[in-house]
Specification:
single chain, 168 residues
């Protein structure tokens, strides 16, 4: 989870190494989402730090509030960097090899092979899904600031759904 109040630039710099040390095989990274009705939302709203209330941005790939210590760009760049490092093909294969090496035969050889094969398929499906998500939604996005995105969305919505009539 990115954009938590205790996050720092130093923490983001060390995060890929920490994930490797812990032995994570797959991560589902997300930028913190202050969902209406939650304590986080109440805190962010009361501190007037909410910068984006466009519900279409509440999917974990947008910075939605001002962080106390980091800029929107710093959070997003760290999110991008961690995704890029973690889901590089080199690291996907390295984690898979580490996973396979840790397996031990506790059943018949055919059952063991089936277990490793099924685990491998699941691992690669999750890894490829997350890598694809990052490539489509994170690496290739041409982000403007969240405020500009919200304004563009609102203007676009207005133009599509309303006719503006001159006042006489």
């Amino acid at each position: 989870m990115f954009a938590l109040d205790e996050d720092t630039k130093e923490y983001y710099e060390t995060l890929p190494k920490k994930l490797d040390e812990v032995g994570c095989n797959v991560i589902l990274p997300s930028i913190s989402i202050p969902i209406y009705g939650t304590p986080l939302y109440d805190k962010i709203k009361s501190e007037r730090r909410l910068i984006d209330e466009d519900i279409s941005h509440y999917e974990g790939d947008h910075v939605l509030f001002r962080h106390n210590n980091l800029s929107e760009e710093e959070i997003y760049e760290a999110y991008k960097r961690v995704n890029k490092i973690f889901y590089s093909w080199k690291n996907i294969f390295r984690r898979w090899i580490r996973f396979v090496k840790k397996q031990s035969v506790q059943e018949s050889i055919p059952q063991f092979v089936l277990k490793v094969l099924i685990s491998t398929v699941i691992y690669f499906k999750l890894s490829i899904f997350q890598k694809h998500h990052a490539e489509e939604r994170v690496f290739n996005s041409k982000r403007t600031s969240t405020k500009k995105q919200s304004e563009k969305t609102f203007v676009s919505y207005q133009k599509e759904h309303f006719t503006v009539l001159p006042i006489n």
